[in-house]
Amino acid sequence: MERALHLGVAGATGLVGGEFLALLEKRRFPLASLRLFASARSVGRRLRWGAGEIAVEDLATADPRGLDVLLCSAGKRVAAEQAPRFAAAGAIVIDNSSAFREDPAVPLIVPEVNGARLRDWLAGARSGATLARGGIIANPNCTTIVLLLPLDALRRAFGLEEVVVSTYQAVSGAGREARDELLGQARAFSLGEPETWRHYDRPIFLNVIPKIGDWVGADCFEEVKVVRETRRILGAPDLRLYATTVRVPVERCHSASVFARLGRPATEVEVREALAGAPGVALEDLPTPRELARREEVFVGRIRVGPDDGRVVRLWIVSDQLWKGAALNAIQIAERIAADGG
Ligand SMILES: NC(=O)c1ccc[n+]([C@@H]2O[C@H](COP(=O)([O-])OP(=O)(O)OC[C@H]3O[C@@H](n4cnc5c(N)ncnc54)[C@H](OP(=O)(O)O)[C@@H]3O)[C@@H](O)[C@H]2O)c1
């Protein structure tokens, strides 16, 4: 039985926060009330909601009581501090940062892929059996989510032995400051003015940077997250998965080139059917990021099988990482909580 929820959005003034508000409205989320939170810097701001406005509260000092669900998108450090406080006060916190993704007690959820895990966790939470660290659910990394929908479709239909992925990730994936840096450099370039940079260690305009996040040995942290989270969600700890993550001067929507080796040979028709039938996946001849912003699906194109090995599949994937990679995935989790009776 669906129940309207008392909902909070933490990080409401950020890029993901803005998409939360847009999607809650677009999807007519069942709301009993809505509270918005950000840092102390934003206190005094009022954000548009429906025909009116809502005043932003300071997350650190706000009263956490009374919320059913907190959609949290305020960074890892803030989530580590604030999510347990809100969970202890009774809210289910759906966190977009990497703070809790590796905690085995915290479910890491993509509803189309492991929605059953969410159902079990909610049932346990209700009976008081599994709330080891309050009610925290982790939203996976944006690239992980976008890759997982088509990879899970292939795995279910044919088995999956090996995946090699190279990503082409939009600057908005790193937040407002990074997005504004690209746009500022483009403006400065067109005016013949000097470009400046702060978020990245070199210009991103007219450039590509094959490193996202800090180094973790020979890999960067984004690559580590994609591998660890994909294995965890698929329950495939030995899946051979190799990632190279690259920041490109695209404003919005992540893209990825995927080479997958299946468990058994398949035809192109079979692969197309498996992908077309997968929830949240749409086929598109030539998906490109600019055209697919603010779309909910993960788009898959350039589908090739073989030519000399029927187990080899190559794909080109594009999806709006601010939507399915972040805000939409979290809202879909919250919708399941509402459908479950809150
Ligand atoms: N961008 C993406 O595509 C994407 C995808 C998946 C996950 N995520 C994750 O989502 C989170 C937010 O990303 P974003 O892209 O929206 O970043 P952003 O545009 O930089 O926004 C950051 C938000 O966090 C708030 N915040 C910062 N410090 C805070 C504090 N001390 N207390 C309370 N709120 C604070 C900011 O509020 P103020 O305005 O008051 O500073 C702002 O609302 C990050 O954890 C990121 O890893 C982002």
From TrEMBL:
<protein>
    <submittedName>
        <fullName>Aspartate-semialdehyde dehydrogenase</fullName>
        <ecNumber>1.2.1.11</ecNumber>
    </submittedName>
</protein>
<dbReference type="GO" id="GO:0046983">
    <property type="term" value="F:protein dimerization activity"/>
</dbReference>
<dbReference type="GO" id="GO:0051287">
    <property type="term" value="F:NAD binding"/>
</dbReference>
<comment type="similarity">
    <text>Belongs to the aspartate-semialdehyde dehydrogenase family.</text>
</comment>
<dbReference type="InterPro" id="IPR012280">
    <property type="entry name" value="Semialdhyde_DH_dimer_dom"/>
</dbReference>
<dbReference type="Pfam" id="PF02774">
    <property type="entry name" value="Semialdhyde_dhC"/>
</dbReference>
<keyword id="KW-0560">Oxidoreductase</keyword>
<feature type="active site" description="Acyl-thioester intermediate">
    <location>
        <position position="142"/>
    </location>
</feature>
<dbReference type="GO" id="GO:0008652">
    <property type="term" value="P:amino acid biosynthetic process"/>
</dbReference>
<dbReference type="Pfam" id="PF01118">
    <property type="entry name" value="Semialdhyde_dh"/>
</dbReference>
<feature type="active site" description="Proton acceptor">
    <location>
        <position position="254"/>
    </location>
</feature>
<dbReference type="InterPro" id="IPR000534">
    <property type="entry name" value="Semialdehyde_DH_NAD-bd"/>
</dbReference>
<dbReference type="GO" id="GO:0004073">
    <property type="term" value="F:aspartate-semialdehyde dehydrogenase activity"/>
</dbReference>
<feature type="domain" description="Semialdehyde dehydrogenase NAD-binding">
    <location>
        <begin position="6"/>
        <end position="121"/>
    </location>
</feature>
<dbReference type="InterPro" id="IPR036291">
    <property type="entry name" value="NAD(P)-bd_dom_sf"/>
</dbReference>
